[in-house]
Design brief:
Layout: H1 4-18, H2 23-37, E1 42-49, E2 54-61, H3 65-73, H4 79-86, E3 90-92, E4 115-122, E5 127-135, H5 143-216, H6 222-252, E6 261-264, H7 265-283, E7 286-291, E8 298-301, H8 303-319, E9 325-335, E10 338-347, H9 369-375, H10 381-391, E11 395-401, E12 405-413, E13 437-441, H11 445-457, E14 461-465, H12 468-477, E15 483-487, H13 495-504, E16 512-516, H14 521-530, E17 534-537, H15 542-555, H16 561-568, H17 572-595, H18 598-614, H19 618-630, H20 637-658
Parallel strand pairs: 7-9, 13-14, 13-15, 15-16, 16-17
Antiparallel strand pairs: 1-2, 1-5, 3-4, 4-5, 6-8, 9-10, 10-12, 11-12
Length: 659
């Protein structure tokens, strides 16, 4: 039993043990406390070191270095090891007795040492070491001594357990960090490879599909038309596969985003129905379409992703249906007091076995090897559809009867626009580039030929340079272009460096539309950051390219006579007032960008868009509307770059008005 006055002192000094940072500090602290309560000439503390797999002498008192080395080497065969193994106290009252065990004898010290006490350092479940004490007196250690030393040994054991746990956690954290670093490096390599392969695959695909479009507009006989259709179909299969792999890479890299803008729902559905109805008819099956007449024409959503969802579901339905029909139904519904648009794609095809339904959205899943061989596909399409629907805060359901058909229903929130029709739609037949001058910067001869062909066919003018350095030299001599089409990967000077030079060195604000096979989000972001206005991916969608050329060249027409004729029709006083408004707008926006007052930017854009609209600058007004919605407290560098490009255009307008 430990006396009360001892207990208070022990509690006071136990902090030395509890504050020890390592095994050596712990051993020294234990010895210092022992010296205060049980002063003995000889002592030694042994702890089991897992990493070294041995019982190690951490601290000793009264022995020579040579003795310590021998004691540690033979510890497991002698008394330290015996106590460690048994977790039992070993007390020899007289070392000169002939009855003591062999493992306790110490020939060198037998004449000096008369009594020995060994205490186990352990917890209830685990042995951790032993603490030995020796005296020159026979039967020196009383019960109080043993109780005090037992208390100290338990403190040492508890603290050592914590140290081992911390060490294990630190080692685990280190290994986890190493693994995390390796995974990140692997993802980085994968992303770089995906970006490179994405560009390398899309660029020749762009050339193939582009030249096919040119061929389709020439005189062809029926057999040639059939051959071109087959080439186009297989090229589209390859393009879809490239897109699926890229989207999965974006999902893994957490770069997959939903970008919502005002869109024409009716026009989008018309395009989707036209293409898929053609594919269904070619296969000899009917295509049915129904739409709820109460749905608005204009909504706010990510049109690109909606098209991807519907084209994937309809493409699968047509692929897996050989007789009967495929249908698309679009209607409104209420869920959780919110209005949704339901897109239901149904078919009378092969259906999905019930046991396979839970797996249809799994990566690389095919219902059977036979289906994979017969119908092909990457097994990624439905996985990506599910990911898109989830990110749009929607739902997707599937119902199927094997042998009779399948139905997928996608529900996405219905978001109405603010009532302003900012979406303009033009068919390819009505597009007229009306003499606009386009500088094509691209090192791929086939791509240049294709771009030149489609632009001149729509009334545009083109000039071609083969790398960024040639573009800089050409623009230095004469910057009079309406739009610059900039490729990214080029020899001598790439598109990123060229765009930087155009904006920062030449100080030219001509709209730059980047065209690239690389559609990785962060690389597109880089284009906007250095000063590009927009982006088109390869293979190039002609309608999308023409719309963007018209949009940006219209905004760039402030230098042209048609804007001068607009301004001469205005009252001079009104022009002066508008110039003042422009100056105030530019000053406030630039100050707000510097101080990151995004709510102030939104407010100023909201006011200024009306002035632009009233004076006939519709394209700039529409840009202001889009920016007002895009600029939020979480605004990224891409949106800020768009805003800065918009300010450059407003400054151009101000210069024109001042003349």
């Amino acid at each position: 039993m430990i006396p009360n006055d001892f207990i208070h002192i022990l509690r006071d000094v136990s902090d030395e043990i509890l504050n020890a940072q390592d095994v050596y500090g712990l051993s020294k602290a234990a010895h210092r406390i022992v010296e205060r309560f049980v002063p003995v000439p000889y002592s030694g503390i042994y702890l089991w070191i897992p990493n070294e797999n041995k019982l190690k002498l951490l601290y000793a008192n009264g022995f020579t270095d040579e003795e310590n080395e021998i004691n540690e080497r033979t510890a497991m065969e002698r008394h330290p090891g015996h106590v460690f193994k048994t977790k039992e106290i070993l007390y020899v009252t007289d070392m000169h007795s002939e009855q003591i065990p062999e493992y306790v004898k110490d020939n060198k010290r037998n004449q000096e040492i008369r009594s020995r006490l060994w205490m186990p350092i352990c917890t209830e479940s685990k042995s951790l070491g032993s603490f030995g004490f020796a005296s020159e007196k026979t039967d020196f250690f009383t019960q109080v001594h043993r109780d005090v030393l037992d208390y100290i040994c338990r403190l040492v054991a508890n603290q050592y357990v914590k140290m081992l746990q911390n060490e294990a956690e630190t080692e685990y954290a280190h290994k986890l960090n190493e693994a995390y670093t390796k995974v990140n490096e692997a993802f980085k390599v994968q992303s770089q490879f995906t970006a490179k392969m994405n560009h390398e695959l899309r660029t020749p695909l762009n050339s193939i599909l582009g030249m096919l479009r040119i061929l389709e507009n020439t005189r062809l006989d029926r057999e040639q038309i059939e051959h071109i259709s087959l080439i186009r179909a297989q090229s589209q299969v390859l393009l879809n596969l490239v897109n699926d792999v890229l989207d999965m890479s974006k999902i893994q890299d957490k770069e997959f985003r939903i970008v919502e803008f005002d869109m024409n729902l009716g026009m989008m559905l018309k395009d989707i129905v036209r293409v898929n109805e053609f594919n269904a008819t070619n296969k000899g099956i009917d295509f049915l379409f129904q739409i709820d007449k109460s749905l608005p024409d204009f909504i706010q959503s990510d049109e690109l992703r909606l098209r991807q969802i519907l084209n994937n579901l309809l493409g699968n339905a047509i692929k897996f249906t050989s007789t009967g029909n495929v249908s698309l139904s679009v209607r409104k519904s209420l869920k959780h007091d919110l209005t949704f648009i339901d897109f239901t794609v149904s078919d009378t095809g092969i259906g999905i076995p019930e046991e396979n339904l839970p797996h249809v959205f799994d990566k690389f899943y095919q219902a059977s090897e036979k289906i994979e061989i017969s119908y092909g596909g990457s097994g990624l399409g439905l996985t990506i559809v599910k990911e898109i629907v989830d990110r749009m805060h929607g739902f997707i359901e599937v119902n199927s009867t094997f042998g009779k058909g399948t139905s997928f229903k996608v529900s996405v929130p219905l978001k109405l626009t603010d009532g302003i029709d900012t979406v303009k739609s033009e068919t390819e037949q009505t597009i007229n580039l009306d003499g606009r001058k386009i500088l094509i910067v691209d090192d791929n001869a086939i791509n240049c030929h294709f771009l030149q062909h489609i632009i001149t066919n729509k009334g545009g003018q083109t000039e071609i340079v083969n790398d960024g350095q040639e573009a800089i030299e050409r623009l230095t001599k004469n910057p009079d272009f309406d739009v610059i089409l900039m490729d990214i990967r080029m020899p001598v000077m790439d598109g990123i460096e060229c765009t930087k030079s155009i904006r920062n060195v030449l100080k030219i604000s001509t709209p730059i539309i980047v065209q690239s096979g690389n559609t990785i989000e962060r690389d597109i972001e880089q284009c906007y950051t250095v000063g590009a206005n927009d982006f088109v991916s390869k293979p190039i969608d002609e309608s999308d390219l023409f719309r963007k050329i018209i949009k940006y060249s219209a905004a760039n027409q402030f230098k042209k006579p048609m804007v001068q004729s607009q301004t001469t029709a205005l009252n001079e006083n009104l022009i002066e007032l508008f110039q003042v408004a422009i100056s105030d707008f530019i000053r406030i926006i630039e100050d707000s960008i510097e101080t990151r007052q995004f709510d102030r930017i939104q407010f100023e854009l909201h006011k200024f868009k009306s002035s632009l609209k009233q004076l006939g600058y519709d394209d700039l007004s529409e840009q202001a509307i889009r920016l007002e919605k895009e600029i939020t407290k979480d605004t990224d560098e891409k949106s800020l770059q768009k805003l800065k490009s918009f300010i450059l255009e407003i400054k151009e307008l101000k210069n024109v008005l001042s003349k």
